[in-house]
Amino acid sequence: MASSTYKLTIPSSTRYLEDVRRFIETHTVEAGFNTQSVEQFKVAVDEACTNVIKHAYSGEDSHELNIKVIVDSDRFTVCIRDKGVAFRPKEYNEPDIFELAKRRQAGGFGVHIMRRLMDHVEYSSQGKVNEVRLTKYLNSHVKNGR
Protein backbone atom coordinates (compact mmCIF):
# COMPACT_ATOMS: atom_id res chain seq x y z
CA MET A 1 0.00 0.00 0.00
CA ALA A 2 1.37 3.38 -0.98
CA SER A 3 1.46 6.11 1.62
CA SER A 4 -1.36 8.68 1.47
CA THR A 5 -1.29 12.16 2.96
CA TYR A 6 -4.20 14.50 3.74
CA LYS A 7 -3.97 18.04 5.11
CA LEU A 8 -6.21 20.45 6.96
CA THR A 9 -5.41 23.96 8.24
CA ILE A 10 -7.59 25.68 10.83
CA PRO A 11 -7.43 28.95 12.76
CA SER A 12 -6.28 28.57 16.37
CA SER A 13 -9.75 28.58 17.88
CA THR A 14 -11.66 25.80 19.61
CA ARG A 15 -14.71 26.53 17.43
CA TYR A 16 -12.95 24.71 14.56
CA LEU A 17 -12.34 21.49 16.53
CA GLU A 18 -15.51 19.92 15.12
CA ASP A 19 -14.00 20.32 11.63
CA VAL A 20 -10.87 18.56 12.87
CA ARG A 21 -12.87 15.69 14.41
CA ARG A 22 -14.79 15.17 11.13
CA PHE A 23 -11.51 15.26 9.14
CA ILE A 24 -9.99 12.62 11.44
CA GLU A 25 -13.13 10.48 11.39
CA THR A 26 -13.25 10.49 7.58
CA HIS A 27 -9.67 9.27 7.23
CA THR A 28 -9.63 6.79 10.10
CA VAL A 29 -12.81 5.16 8.76
CA GLU A 30 -11.31 5.04 5.25
CA ALA A 31 -8.21 3.39 6.72
CA GLY A 32 -10.42 0.67 8.21
CA PHE A 33 -10.12 1.43 11.92
CA ASN A 34 -12.79 0.00 14.18
CA THR A 35 -15.24 2.36 15.91
CA GLN A 36 -13.33 2.41 19.19
CA SER A 37 -10.08 3.42 17.49
CA VAL A 38 -11.83 6.08 15.40
CA GLU A 39 -13.20 7.63 18.62
CA GLN A 40 -9.81 7.36 20.32
CA PHE A 41 -8.19 9.24 17.46
CA LYS A 42 -10.84 11.95 17.58
CA VAL A 43 -10.33 12.45 21.34
CA ALA A 44 -6.52 12.40 21.15
CA VAL A 45 -6.36 14.84 18.21
CA ASP A 46 -8.92 17.11 19.88
CA GLU A 47 -6.78 17.14 23.04
CA ALA A 48 -3.61 17.89 21.05
CA CYS A 49 -5.27 20.76 19.16
CA THR A 50 -6.79 22.14 22.36
CA ASN A 51 -3.36 22.11 24.02
CA VAL A 52 -1.88 24.05 21.10
CA ILE A 53 -4.70 26.61 21.17
CA LYS A 54 -4.65 27.07 24.96
CA HIS A 55 -0.96 26.72 25.76
CA ALA A 56 1.13 27.31 22.63
CA TYR A 57 -1.02 30.22 21.42
CA SER A 58 -2.47 31.31 24.81
CA GLY A 59 -5.97 31.29 23.34
CA GLU A 60 -5.17 33.80 20.59
CA ASP A 61 -7.17 32.90 17.48
CA SER A 62 -4.98 34.72 14.94
CA HIS A 63 -2.65 31.74 14.37
CA GLU A 64 -2.95 28.49 12.43
CA LEU A 65 -2.78 24.80 13.19
CA ASN A 66 -1.68 22.52 10.39
CA ILE A 67 -2.98 18.98 10.64
CA LYS A 68 -1.59 16.24 8.43
CA VAL A 69 -2.77 12.64 8.25
CA ILE A 70 -0.33 10.08 6.93
CA VAL A 71 -1.68 6.62 6.13
CA ASP A 72 1.06 4.03 5.64
CA SER A 73 0.70 0.30 5.17
CA ASP A 74 1.36 -0.39 8.86
CA ARG A 75 0.41 2.83 10.67
CA PHE A 76 -1.82 5.89 10.77
CA THR A 77 -0.18 9.10 11.95
CA VAL A 78 -1.63 12.53 12.66
CA CYS A 79 0.87 15.41 12.76
CA ILE A 80 -0.21 18.70 14.33
CA ARG A 81 2.08 21.66 13.71
CA ASP A 82 2.11 25.10 15.28
CA LYS A 83 4.43 28.07 15.70
CA GLY A 84 3.57 28.87 19.31
CA VAL A 85 5.32 28.21 22.60
CA ALA A 86 6.87 24.75 22.45
CA PHE A 87 5.74 21.97 24.77
CA ARG A 88 8.67 20.50 26.67
CA PRO A 89 7.87 16.85 27.31
CA LYS A 90 10.91 16.41 29.59
CA GLU A 91 9.38 18.96 31.98
CA TYR A 92 5.99 17.24 31.99
CA ASN A 93 4.96 15.21 35.04
CA GLU A 94 2.13 12.71 34.76
CA PRO A 95 -0.84 14.00 36.75
CA ASP A 96 -2.06 12.15 39.81
CA ILE A 97 -5.51 11.53 38.40
CA PHE A 98 -6.99 10.42 41.70
CA GLU A 99 -5.69 13.52 43.49
CA LEU A 100 -7.01 15.82 40.77
CA ALA A 101 -10.37 14.04 40.86
CA LYS A 102 -10.56 14.51 44.64
CA ARG A 103 -9.99 18.23 44.10
CA ARG A 104 -12.49 18.16 41.21
CA GLN A 105 -9.91 19.84 39.02
CA ALA A 106 -10.84 19.94 35.36
CA GLY A 107 -8.13 20.02 32.75
CA GLY A 108 -4.51 18.97 32.82
CA PHE A 109 -5.15 15.49 31.43
CA GLY A 110 -4.56 16.10 27.70
CA VAL A 111 -1.08 14.63 27.39
CA HIS A 112 -2.00 11.71 29.63
CA ILE A 113 -5.12 10.98 27.55
CA MET A 114 -3.19 11.14 24.27
CA ARG A 115 -0.55 8.74 25.57
CA ARG A 116 -3.21 6.32 26.81
CA LEU A 117 -5.17 6.30 23.54
CA MET A 118 -2.34 6.20 21.00
CA ASP A 119 0.36 3.62 20.37
CA HIS A 120 2.98 6.35 20.11
CA VAL A 121 3.09 10.09 20.88
CA GLU A 122 6.12 12.15 19.93
CA TYR A 123 6.91 15.84 20.30
CA SER A 124 9.52 17.75 18.31
CA SER A 125 10.51 21.32 17.52
CA GLN A 126 12.55 22.62 14.64
CA GLY A 127 13.16 26.35 14.51
CA LYS A 128 9.82 27.99 15.32
CA VAL A 129 7.75 24.97 14.27
CA ASN A 130 6.47 22.52 16.88
CA GLU A 131 4.95 19.18 16.03
CA VAL A 132 3.14 16.47 17.91
CA ARG A 133 2.78 13.11 16.13
CA LEU A 134 0.02 10.72 17.19
CA THR A 135 0.36 7.20 15.82
CA LYS A 136 -1.62 3.97 15.90
CA TYR A 137 -0.46 0.81 14.22
CA LEU A 138 -3.02 -0.66 11.85
CA ASN A 139 -2.69 -4.37 12.58
CA SER A 140 -4.33 -4.27 16.00
CA HIS A 141 -7.04 -1.63 15.45
CA VAL A 142 -8.71 -2.33 12.11
CA LYS A 143 -12.05 -3.95 11.38
CA ASN A 144 -12.23 -7.67 10.72
CA GLY A 145 -8.52 -8.19 11.39
CA ARG A 146 -7.65 -6.42 8.14
What overall geometry do the principal axes of the alpha carbons give?
A: globular
The helix count comes to 4
Structural class, from secondary structure content? alpha+beta
Overall pLDDT confidence: 90
Strand ordering within the main sheet: 1-2-3-5-4
Low-pLDDT ranges: none
In whole angstroms, how far apart are the ends?
13 Å
Number of strands: 5
What sequence of helices (H) and strands (E) makes up the elements? EHHEEHHEE
How would you sum up the major sheet? Answer: 5 strands, antiparallel
Strand content: 25-35%
Q: Gyration radius, to the nearest Å?
A: 15 Å
Please give a structural write-up.
This protein is an alpha+beta fold and 146 residues long. The chain is 35% helix and 27% strand. It has a 5-stranded antiparallel sheet, with helices on one face. Helix 2 packs antiparallel against helix 4 (110-117). It starts with a strand and ends in a 9-residue tail after the last strand.
Topology, pairings included?
Blueprint: E1 4-11, H1 17-31, H2 35-56, E2 64-71, E3 75-82, H3 97-102, H4 110-117, E4 120-126, E5 129-137
Antiparallel strand pairs: 1-2, 2-3, 3-5, 4-5
Helix pairs in contact: 1-2, 2-4
